C-alpha cells in the first residue's frame, strides 16, 4: 500500500469514528429529553 491509500483509509476511519460519536451523542440527548419529558 502506498501513502495515499493509507491516508484515505485513515480519513475514512476517523470519519466513521466521528459519525458514531455524533450518533451516540444525539441518541443519548433524545433519550434524556424523552425521559425528562415523561417523568417530569
From TrEMBL:
Give the transmembrane region(s): 15-39
Query: Has keyword Transmembrane helix?
Result: yes
UniProt keywords (A-Z) are: Membrane, Transmembrane, Transmembrane helix
The protein in question is named Uncharacterized protein
Q: What does the organism's lineage look like at the top?
A: unclassified sequences, metagenomes, ecological metagenomes
